[in-house]
Q: What sequence folds into this?
């Protein structure tokens, strides 16, 4: 029998109160009035209490996708025209998907025909508290603008895009507590990150941020991105040209070459010897500077090839701590000038950047087995010969 959350109806004409979450992540009771096309209706204080089922893992994952899609649609809506036009289509899809997930969560108790238009079904639907969904007028507006754009070629204007963004937020934030028992902004998107080590760092960062420990939160989000790029680059490289056999490794490098510059043979004259030593020291210092610049360029190129959005990476890199590795392999975050900008908003940006980067990289990631020695080469050739000319799956 599924767990349920009690809902006690308030006696005031207020907006739907948003669910709160304790430090242990448990959902708290949710209160919500009844609405008619976005207008609160009088509530009978003697009305019976209703319940909202606690979302299971599958529903929470779908809600995580919805919040991600909403974030992307909102970001697109802020783009200059005409790049922001299609955000109306995206926002409509988000609302419809949210409604479908609500039906999957609560059950199609009203026998709605899912082939009917979304806005018609939304009008007929009743929340567990017995009231209509909040913000239906906004759903109708978005649907009207979406149909006009998609079917009639009526391009939405700036005002329509802004109104669609506000209407979508009203619908999602107003109904999420009533249908799922939690605030829309409390929906975690972290469980959709496919890389487990990255996800663990992000979850630790979110916990620290929720507790007001922004230094620790920023350290975890920086570790998450470093882990993401290091895992992606492991075993990958760019082959050299026909005249340059040296490959360009995409694997993370934790140390620069230790150059040694000496004057040989050593002059017998003390003055000449001192001058040569000073020259060697200057050359070594200059080469170390070049090595640092080359490693920075190599790191940026590695990140760019991975598919990360580079404009957002520039902002992330300026805020997030740097990651260094000790001789025994332990990684640690070193706070620098970015700590002057450790705010909750900047943490949320960094978390979203790492999460979107993880999804991009997860979509394109690949692994190839490559020989490391002549013995590996010979064994692979023999294995292919015994397997019809194909590398066996256990070697791939």
A:
């Amino acid at each position: 029998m599924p767990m349920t959350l009690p809902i006690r109806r308030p006696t005031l004409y207020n907006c739907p109160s948003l669910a709160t979450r304790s430090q242990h992540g448990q959902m708290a009771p949710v209160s919500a009035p009844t609405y008619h096309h976005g207008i609160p209706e009088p509530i009978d204080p003697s009305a019976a209490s209703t319940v909202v089922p606690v979302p299971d893992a599958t529903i929470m994952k779908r809600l995580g996708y919805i919040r991600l899609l909403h974030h992307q649609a909102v970001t697109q809506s802020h783009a200059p025209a005409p790049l922001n036009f299609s955000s109306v289509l995206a926002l409509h899809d988000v609302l419809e998907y949210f409604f479908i997930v609500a039906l999957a969560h609560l059950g199609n108790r009203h026998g709605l025909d899912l082939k009917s238009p979304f806005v018609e079904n939304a009008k007929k639907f009743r929340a567990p508290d017995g009231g209509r969904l909040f913000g239906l007028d906004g759903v109708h507006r978005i649907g009207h603008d979406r149909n006009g754009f998609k079917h009639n070629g009526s391009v939405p204007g700036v005002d329509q895009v802004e109104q669609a963004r506000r209407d979508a937020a009203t619908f999602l934030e107003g109904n999420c507590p009533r249908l799922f028992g939690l605030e829309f902004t409390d929906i975690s998107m972290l469980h959709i990150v496919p890389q487990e080590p990255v996800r663990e760092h992000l979850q630790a960062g979110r916990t620290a941020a929720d507790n007001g420990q922004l230094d620790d939160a920023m350290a975890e989000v920086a570790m998450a991105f470093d882990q993401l790029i290091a895992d992606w680059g492991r075993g990958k490289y760019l082959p050299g040209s026909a005249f340059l056999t040296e490959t360009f490794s995409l694997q993370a490098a934790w140390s620069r070459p230790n150059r040694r510059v000496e004057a040989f043979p050593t002059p017998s004259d003390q003055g000449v010897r001192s001058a040569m030593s000073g020259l060697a020291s200057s050359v070594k210092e200059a080469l170390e500077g070049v090595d640092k610049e080359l490693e920075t360029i190599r790191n940026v190129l590695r990140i760019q090839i991975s598919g990360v959005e580079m404009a957002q990476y520039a902002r992330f890199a300026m805020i997030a701590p740097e990651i260094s590795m000790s001789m025994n392999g332990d990684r640690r975050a070193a706070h620098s000038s970015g700590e002057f900008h450790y705010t909750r908003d900047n943490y949320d940006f960094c978390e979203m950047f790492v999460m979107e980067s993880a999804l991009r990289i997860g979509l394109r990631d690949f692994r190839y087995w490559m020989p490391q020695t002549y013995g590996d080469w010979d064994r692979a050739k023999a294995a292919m010969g015994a397997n019809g000319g194909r590398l066996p799956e256990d070697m791939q």
DSSP finds eleven helices and eight strands in the chain. The radius of gyration is 29 Å. The first helix runs from residue 57 to 77.
